[in-house]
Amino acid sequence: MPDISTIVITHRFWYTKAKKVIFMCGRYNFSKNSSSEMVQAVLENLQSRQIEVKTGEVFPGDVAAVIASNRKLEPQAFGMKWGYQLPDGKLIFNARSETASQKAMFADGMRQRRCLVPADSYFEWQKTGQGKQKYEIAPANLAGFFLAGIYRIEQGRPVFSILTKEPVESIAFIHTRMPVILPNEAMKDWLNPKYEGQDFLSMAIGNMNYSPI
């Protein structure tokens, strides 16, 4: 994948937040103070073109930084709203990776509209007898990473959903799902529609660190 710092931004998108969301794996961190060179490069590139995206804790409905292929199959950074919007206003912000290619809502995205969502960590909540415990989770020994996503066009603007999978054993006690996190060597081909998206899912990173917050 080309150096993110050389990506050319060509679009700017603005959205209003939908009133309702469907909850599953639903927040991640994209920090403007990130120690990750990759995250900083994406953010600086967006800012240089006056493209505003949410930083810090990103919620469904926010406009977030996303990497996708342009018409020349080159990675570019975009601002995309997080969540496919249903007619009743609800957002579908996750897609099950095991069945996405078989579902009408997600099949086109899996086939030709795949994307990468830069992040520093993601958040999940464990249900306990005393309520819910929030955890911050990230791949071990990796500063900054990409969540695998798909996108579609709604009213002329792109919106994205993050793919999820069964959790690895070390974090299964927190939640029944986790996002698909791809290794660096899979990123370029994940964005290329000439390859089958399903073929990359088994490469997802599974060595995770977590901490209660």
What are the low-pLDDT stretches, counting only 5+ consecutive residues below 50? 1-23
Order of helical and strand elements: EHEEEEEEHEEEEEEEHE
Structural class: mainly beta
CATH A-level architecture: Alpha-Beta Complex
In whole angstroms, how far apart are the ends? 34 Å
Q: And the CATH topology?
A: hypothetical protein yedk fold
User: What share of the residues does DSSP label as strand, in percent?
Assistant: 35-45%
Number of structural domains? 1
Number of helices, counting only DSSP H or I runs of 4 residues or more: 3
Mean pLDDT, rounded to whole units?
88
Helix content: 10-25%
User: Order of strands in the sheet with the most strands?
Assistant: 2-1-9-10-15
Oligomer: single chain
What's the gyration radius in Å? Answer: 16 Å
Instruction: Let me know the largest β-sheet.
Output: 5 strands, antiparallel
CATH class descriptor = Alpha Beta
**Shape descriptor:** globular
What is the number of strand segments? Answer: 15
How is this structure best described in words?
The structure is a single chain. By secondary structure, this protein is mainly β. The chain has a single domain, classed as hypothetical protein yedk fold. Helices cover 14% and strands 38% of the residues. It is built from 3 helices and 15 strands. The protein has helices at 37-48, 104-112, 184-191, and strands at residues 27-30, 56-58, 63-69, 75-82, 84-85, 91-92, 94-96, 114-119, 121-128, 131-139, 145-154, 157-165, 178-179, 181-182, 208-212. The strands form 3 sheets. Strands 2-1-9-10-15 form a 5-stranded antiparallel beta sheet, with no helix packed on it. A 5-stranded mixed barrel has the order 3-4-12-11-8. The chain has a two-stranded antiparallel sheet with strand order 5-6. The radius of gyration is 16 Å and the shape is globular. Mean pLDDT is 88; it is low at 1-23.
